[in-house]
Design goal:
The protein has a single domain (about 5-225), classed as TIM Barrel (Alpha-Beta Barrel). The protein is about 45% helix and about 10% strand. The chain has helices at about 20-35, 55-65, 80-95, 110-125, 135-140, 145-150, 165-175, 190-195, 210-220, 225-240, 250-260, 275-285, and strands at about 5-10, 40, 75, 100-105, 130-135, 155-160, 180-185, 200-205. An 8-stranded parallel β-barrel has the order 1-2-3-4-5-6-7-8, surrounded by 5 helices. Helix 1 (about 20-35) crosses helix 2, helix 3 (about 80-95) runs parallel beside helix 4 (about 110-125) and helix 6 (about 145-150) runs parallel beside helix 7 (about 165-175). About 50% of the residues are buried.
């Protein structure tokens, strides 16, 4: 249903933390012009944890309205409580999203049966395409392949964003789910290999700063053009690394601000990118031909 380079969109803010909706419009246009295949709003990269419920609804509505069906919009609606996740997912569906991304419940450490029942309850309550989100490094909760395989039989669970950091896990999911559920890389550095193995795309941090190059790399990988995919991904390799030199989305918000697309605002407890990380990120952006090379 969804495929290719799907950007995990940042939420632009002024330096005082107020959401910059004009820049949000500009970012949407930037992605449409550069061929991005889909947009995830109010996810981890969009600082959903620091946005109020009203702000999340405003961001979703703004993006859906401005996109106007030109590409899919997916909203991050997964929280710790099953009941609250159902409510957020319903609201997002009513605002017109094409799908919802649901991270595993953080902190509470549910059992695998609890995870199955959590996602099944959301899917039964809200008839919108759902993408599971496995990111154990943030949630302390791992959706194991057997549980994903069980959930792949639920009709409106259409995919999983796999961010455990293992290409072997992605391959295992592809094998066990047998095409019933699409696998999306949640790790930019593993996206190429995931797609070459049969994955359908990436939900990408890197695409915020390098949408055209990520789109080209994804197209090559999905077409099975190994040589071209390798060549394009090599240009992105340092960027993949440097965009995680500090907690996401700290580096990527600075990178996008350097492209002149938004201010440098970010909300506590996240802080602006450390000065000692900026030069390396700037070099990575130059390698990806996002910035001109300076002589300084």
């Amino acid at each position: 249903m969804f495929h290719g380079s799907i950007v995990a969109l940042v939420t632009p803010m002024f330096v005082d933390g107020v959401i910059d909706f004009d820049s949000l419009t500009q970012l949407v246009d930037f992605h449409i012009e550069n061929g991005t295949d889909g947009i995830v709003v109010v996810g981890t990269t969009g600082e959903s944890a620091t946005l109020s419920a009203d702000e999340q609804r405003l961001v979703i509505k703004h993006v859906v309205n401005h996109v106007n069906n030109r590409l899919p919009v997916i909203a991050g609606t997964g929280v710790t409580s099953t009941k609250a996740s159902i409510e957020l997912t319903k609201q997002a569906m009513e605002l017109g999203v094409d799908g919802c991304l649901l991270m595993a419940p953080a902190y509470v450490k549910p059992t695998q049966e609890g995870l199955f029942q959590h996602y099944k309850a959301i899917a039964q309550a809200v008839p919108v395409p759902l993408i599971l989100y496995n990111v154990p490094g943030r949630t302390a909760c791992d959706i194991l392949p057997k549980t994903v395989e069980r959930l792949s039989h639920v009709s409106n669970i259409v995919g999983i964003k796999e961010a455990s950091g293992s290409i072997q896990r992605a391959k295992q999911l592809l094998q066990q789910c047998e095409g019933r559920l699409d696998v999306y890389s949640g790790e930019d550095s593993l996206a190429k290999d995931s797609m070459l193995a049969g994955g359908r795309g990436v939900i990408s941090v890197t695409a915020n700063a390098a949408p055209k190059l990520m789109k080209q790399m994804c197209d090559a990988a999905l077409a099975g053009d190994v040589a071209l995919a390798n060549k394009l991904d090599a240009k992105l390799a340092d960027l993949h690394e440097q965009l995680f030199s500090e907690s996401n989305p700290i580096p990527v918000k600075w990178a996008v601000s350097q492209l002149g697309l938004m201010p440098e605002g970010i909300r506590l407890p996240l802080t602006p990118l450390s000065d000692d990380k900026k030069a390396l990120l700037q070099t990575a952006m130059q390698q990806a031909e996002l910035l001109g090379v300076t002589n300084s």
